Amino acid sequence: MKRSSLLQQAAATKQTLFDEGVLDDQFLQLEDIYGDPKSLEELITWSFGESAKNIGTIEQLLERASIDFIEVGKALHKLKGTSASIGAKNVLMKVNEMTEQCKTNTVDGRCKASLQGLKNEQNDLKEKLTIYLQMKRQAQPGGAA
After folding, report:
1. Helix 25-34 × helix 37-63 angle, to 10°
2. Which three-class secondary structure state does DSSP give residue 88?
3. 12: Cβ contacts below 8 Å, ≥ 6 apart
4. Is 141 part of any domain?
5. How many Å apart are CA 117 and CA 33, to the nearest integer?
6. Number of C-beta neighbours around residue 106 at 10 A
7. 87: left (phi over 0), alpha (psi -120 to 50) or beta
8. Is the residue at 105 inside a domain?
9. How many domains does the chain have?
10. 3-state SS of 25-48?
11. pLDDT, tens digit (0-9, with 9 covering 90-100), for 98-116
């Protein structure tokens, strides 16, 4: 595919991510700061890894017989920071929803449902952002598939 066509496709994909509320302006700032798609991709990959760790921690904490909601809150706070740092708008909203659900210090269906919604949103972000970053990488001069 021609470079100009790839650039147009990448731009359209990015616009869709904003239109769907997946990303916010923080992501644009990261693109400006990092410039090189490879560097941005490294940051995003790190962010996904940290998010997966935090989500795993939250899952483990919620499965315990005696749940330490302070620790759940700390893990949610870390996840919030990681999500906000890359402009993951929908994920950030799900983290905030789960934080509110867990403030009651009871694990009922709402708290676990919030976790599932958060995981779904994180997976959606990862899938869509991976596609976008791949397009950006391919559109670079000498870009690899």
Report:
1. 130
2. strand
3. none
4. no
5. 31
6. 11
7. left
8. yes
9. 1
10. HHHHHHHHHHCCHHHHHHHHHHHH
11. 998 887 766 666 777 889 9
Residue 141's SS3 state is coil
CB burial of 128-140 (b: ≥16 within 10 Å; e: otherwise) equals bbeebbbbbbbbe
Q: Provide, rounded to the nearest whole percent, the portion of the chain with pLDDT above 70.
A: 93
Q: How far apart are the first and last CA of the chain?
A: 11
Could you tell me which of 23, 79, 27 has the C-alpha nearest to residue 55?
79
In a domain, 144, yes or no: no
Q: Which domain holds residue 48?
A: 1-136
Residue pLDDT, tens place only, 33-67: 988 888 899 999 999 999 999 999 999 998 888 88
Q: Do you know the residue count of the chain? A: 145
- Cα 123 to chain center, whole Å? 8
Which pair of tokens denotes residue 18? 């904003």
Q: Tokens 């923080």 belong to which residue?
A: 26
Within a domain: residue 119?
Answer: yes
CATH value at residue 70: 1.20.120.160
